[in-house]
Amino acid sequence: MTLLRRSLLAALILPALAHATANVDAPAPTFSATTADGKTVNLADYKGKTVVLEWTNHDCPYVRKHYGAGNMQTQQKAAAAQGVVWLQVISSAPGQQGFVDGATAQKLNADRGAAPTATLLDPKGELGKLYGAQTTPHMYVIKADGTLAYKGGIDSLATPDKADIAKAEPYVTEALAAVAAGRKVEKASTRPYGCSVKYAS
Question: FRET label pair with 16: which of 23, 71, 120, 131, CA 20 to 30 Å apart?
């Protein structure tokens, strides 16, 4: 292979790696992240447990839909009751919509009655890009063996209207039920909807 060909090949491969995405039925990308209360967590810490990743931005109308109606909190608490680890991820960059420091993230959750296991701060967008997170919310379910079981929308109706929650197919709830029963998730990859993740430009 000529040097020119190698350079062209590298130019094609590197951008793909820089914007890697998690694939269903493949091992979920491993990560280390800082929580809102200043701790460091690793995906490996939760081996043997089902894990939900929820990308969030408190100023996004679609996020407000699910928190304002209590839907996200209900799902978080139901998951916790089943021993599921629920991790919020904030990938908004400094100066962008949804960016908060750890104390503000904790206050937001307290004010809303939210109950994630932890909130991960990702201001450089490294975790978001590792998973290919596109929207807030964007949801992922990882099985106890570390395999990605689901990625996509929280439900089937891509609107900011709270009234549509009851009419929507609850994709994440269904995915968690399938994983708990040892079944393959029927709709394992769906279209996420919401505001774009506010990565650094």
Answer: 120
pTM: 0.89
**Distance between the two ends of the chain, CA-based, in angstroms?**
35
Q: Which of 137, 128, 146, 127 is nearest to 24 (CA)?
A: 146
Q: What is the pLDDT of residues 31-41, one digit of tens each?
A: 999 999 999 99
Distance CA 106, CA 119 (A): 8
CATH superfamily placement of domain 21-196: Glutaredoxin (3.40.30.10)
Q: What are phi and psi of 87, to 5 degrees?
A: -115, 115
Q: Could you tell me the residue ranges of all domains in the chain?
A: 21-196
Beta bridge partners of 99: none
